[in-house]
Automatic annotation (TrEMBL):
InterPro entries named in the record: cNMP-bd_dom (IPR000595), cNMP-bd_dom_sf (IPR018490), RmlC-like_jellyroll (IPR014710)
Record protein name field: Crp/Fnr family transcriptional regulator
Length: 194
């Protein structure tokens, strides 16, 4: 199990003793998800916080017309979950699948609750993660209502700099809320302006 990446991620917000690190690591389950395999589908109850150590996951919904709407990507060193379902333990609204073969560490909701009791600083860590997720979701909503497609693409590039040349254009287009065709024209126009 690759634990150094997740421990570095935790260290951004909390300091753990070696004993606390060992307790935390003992609660994790490692898993490999093959490309196009689902970790969570619409209607499932989200039972884990998911940390990506290699590869890339995406969280998305599908509308009644069958169009996918990407809400988030999770490259290495990112957490992902259906927050509504994880917190409420009700059926979820997100699909989470692998865009490529992906290695993850899973922390079950039950083990997360145990951590809160054993090592209270984990409540602080996950509060920060949840608050950051809420802020990002709110900003994304505001951006979708008030920014041009080009501005939303620039924000995508800032948020996910490692994914710009890594993801298929249709995934990026879905994330910023435009068609792949419009995305191609937009990038071509930007290239001509340079």
């Amino acid at each position: 199990m690759t634990s150094s990446l997740i421990l570095d991620n935790l260290a951004k917000h909390i300091h753990l003793t070696k004993e606390e690190q060992d307790i935390f690591i003992s609660y994790l389950q490692s898993k490999t998800i093959k490309r196009k395999q689902f970790l969570l589908t619409y209607g499932d109850i989200c039972k884990h916080s998911i940390f990506v150590t290699a590869g890339c996951l995406r969280g998305y919904t599908v509308d009644k017309g069958g169009i996918e709407h990407v809400l988030s990507f999770a490259p290495p060193d990112w957490w992902i979950a259906d927050m509504y379902s994880l917190l409420s333990q009700k059926p979820g609204i997100l699909n989470i699948d692998a865009l490529e073969d992906t290695d993850v560490l899973l922390l079950s909701k039950a083990n997360q609750e145990k951590l809160y009791l054993q090592i209270p600083k984990f409540e602080h860590f996950f509060r920060i993660i949840t608050e950051n997720s809420l802020v990002a979701s709110q900003q994304r909503l505001i951006d979708g209502l008030s920014l041009t497609a080009e501005e939303r693409y620039n924000n995508f590039c800032k948020r996910y700099p490692t994914l710009i040349d890594h993801l298929p254009q249709k995934q990026i287009a879905s994330y910023i809320g435009i068609t792949p065709e419009f995305f191609s024209r937009m990038r071509a126009n930007a290239a001509r302006k340079k």
